[in-house]
């Protein structure tokens, strides 16, 4: 897989104009203009840059999971360093909006260098982008115009502080708008929970639990074609419980059924549920149910 260590080499690969700053580039369509079009397709690549990009598709629509959305109001995409990128020419749209690319070292010595890691949407897949309302879009674009002004002007000792401050403001607004998106997409959230439970059920029934052990959240998310971070954030917003908590609840529900079967030891139940260490199963069961597996058997087992 090809990796680009510098912003210039990455933009050159995309067939985009070279940056005005060695670690920062800003493209803004403005008015009737269009974003410069990069190469139409690419095999998997990685780079050391962050990307914040607003895409407005003049015509057509794209699928977001099982739902079709008209993107004319704009979709905001966040890409982190080392994230694998790949695209093809099967769907081509004329694009308006903006694209900000900056090397991770551009943030060195700034408070944003540490704060940017708390913005989980940089871990989201492209089909989990932020869908902006016209009002939200205007707010974001006004911030980008401030960044572009500093980028295009003769830069001085204040420029970097001003640009990183504006970037931080942009990310804070994005965080707010994602909160709104999570709240407004309860149907999508419920669908994710149903699919999460369905994949767990399939995994259990196929016998993979005994063979491969308890699946990781990453494995389940990959099966669902969503990112681990987005799955966790969405379920947390909707249900108040993380993906790990939902996994544990599923395991405990299964355990309750197995524990009441005749001639089953606690260790056998633990191994059957994919736990490598029975004591860990017992501690988790007591934490969730308030009683130990042994006490549960004595309390509920029918004579």
UniProtKB/TrEMBL annotation:
Keywords for the protein's UniProt record, in alphabetical order: DNA-binding, Transcription, Transcription regulation
Domain HTH araC/xylS-type: 198-299
Annotated Pfam families: HTH_18
GO molecular function, one term: sequence-specific DNA binding
Classification via PANTHER family: ARAC-FAMILY TRANSCRIPTIONAL REGULATOR, TRANSCRIPTIONAL REGULATORY PROTEIN
Protein name in UniProt: DNA-binding domain-containing protein, AraC-type
Organism: Bernardetia litoralis (strain ATCC 23117 / DSM 6794 / NBRC 15988 / NCIMB 1366 / Fx l1 / Sio-4)
């Amino acid at each position: 897989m090809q990796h680009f260590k510098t912003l210039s080499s990455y933009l050159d690969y995309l067939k985009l104009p070279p940056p005005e700053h060695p670690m920062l580039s800003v493209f803004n369509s403005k008015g009737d203009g269009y974003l410069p079009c990069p190469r139409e397709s690419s095999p998997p690549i990685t780079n050391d840059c962050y990307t914040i990009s607003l895409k407005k598709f003049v015509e057509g629509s794209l699928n977001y999971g099982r739902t079709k959305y008209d993107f004319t109001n704009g979709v905001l995409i966040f890409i982190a360093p080392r994230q694998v990128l790949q695209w093809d020419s099967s769907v081509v749209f004329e694009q308006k909006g903006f694209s900000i690319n900056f090397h991770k070292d551009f943030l060195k010595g700034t408070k944003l260098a540490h704060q940017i890691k708390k913005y989980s949407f940089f871990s989201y897949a492209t089909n989990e982008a932020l869908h902006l309302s016209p009002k939200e879009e205007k707010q974001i674009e006004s911030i980008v115009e401030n960044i572009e002004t500093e980028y295009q002007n003769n830069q001085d000792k204040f420029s970097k502080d001003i640009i990183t401050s504006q970037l931080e403001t942009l990310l804070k607004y994005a965080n707010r708008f994602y909160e709104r998106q999570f709240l407004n997409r309860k149907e999508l959230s419920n669908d994710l929970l149903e699919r999460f439970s369905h994949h767990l059920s399939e995994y259990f029934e196929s016998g993979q639990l005994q063979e491969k052990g308890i699946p990781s959240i990453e494995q389940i998310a990959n099966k669902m074609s969503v990112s681990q971070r987005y799955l966790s954030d969405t379920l947390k917003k909707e249900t108040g419980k993380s993906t790990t908590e939902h996994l544990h609840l599923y395991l405990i529900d299964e355990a309750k059924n197995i524990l009441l079967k005749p001639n089953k030891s606690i260790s056998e139940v633990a191994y059957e549920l994919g736990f490598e260490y029975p004591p860990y199963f017992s501690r988790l069961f007591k934490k969730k149910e308030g009683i130990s597996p042994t006490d549960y058997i004595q309390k509920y087992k029918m004579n």
